[in-house]
Amino acid sequence: DTGVSQDPRHKITKRGQNVTFRCDPISEHNRLYWYRQTLGQGPEFLTYFQNEAQLEKSRLLSDRFSAERPKGSFSTLEIQRTEQGDSAMYLCASSLVTARAHEQYFGPGTRLTVT
Amino acid sequence: SQKIEQNSEALNIQEGKTATLTCNYTNYSPAYLQWYRQDPGRGPVFLLLIRENEKEKRKERLKVTFDTTLKQSLFHITASQPADSATYLCAAGGGKLIFGQGTELSVKP
């Protein structure tokens, strides 16, 4: 399967714990995005990378969230000191940015539940 | 702030009819609008992208329009089938995407 993969698919954690999610994009894609989605809403942008550079981070994102993309391949999203409001589906997407193509390919998501 | 709005009410139609979904944007002039399909518990799947200088785009039974005067995009599924039942998301942008809340479509046999 050459699509975007995410790990884990589900995570249950207690409030105050740290969690880390991993995303493996489509191998030739140079952009990688993180979104968060809650029930009944569309995905909300968190951050994105072009190769290994983090180019934008949402102003809504607290300092408890950090993302990395070492060597421009896989990416990790860490949430420190989780809160119940962090419960959501975390989606990763990748794309190959050319002059014409900007569609994004999404992974299956990681569902986070904070108890 | 930039806003993308879709009909939040579910759309129920009969098999074989054309489904039309609406996407409106405010405080924004996107160069691209994109439409995605999302099934429960899964990530969105790309369907179509339309540029601001394109009035209409088609792909098989799908058609998208982009009206920069009305600040609106319409998404049509012709000859709808029960397998088309899903949530359809409108998104603005070419890189970072701003999504609407999605419209749930249910096609009854």
Summarize the structure.
The complex is a heterodimer of chains A (115) and B (109). By secondary structure, chain A is mostly beta strands. Chain A has strands spanning 5-7, 10-13, 19-24, 31-37, 44-50, 53-57, 65-68, 75-79, 88-95, 105-106, 110-114.
Explain how this protein is built.
The complex is a heterodimer of chains A (115) and B (109). By secondary structure, chain A is mostly beta strands. In chain A, the strands form two sheets. In chain A, strands 2, 4, 5, 6, 9, 10 and 11 form a seven-stranded mixed β-sheet that branches. In chain A, a hairpin with a 2-residue loop joins strand 5 and strand 6. The N and C termini of chain A lie far apart (33 Å). Chain B is mostly beta strands. In chain B, 0% of the residues lie in helices and 56% in strands. Chain B has no helices and eleven strands. In chain B, strands 2, 4, 5, 9, 10 and 11 form a six-stranded mixed β-sheet that branches. A five-stranded antiparallel β-sheet of chain B has the order 1-3-8-7-6, with no helix packed on it. In chain B, a hairpin with a 4-residue loop joins strand 7 and strand 8. Chain B is globular. The chains are: A mainly beta (115), B mainly beta (109). At the A-B interface, strand 4, strand 5, strand 9 and strand 10 of A face strand 4, strand 5 and strand 10 of B.
Largest sheet of chain A: 7 strands, mixed
Distance between the termini of chain B: 41 Å
Low-confidence stretches of chain B: none
Question: What average pLDDT do the residues of chain B reach?
Answer: 94
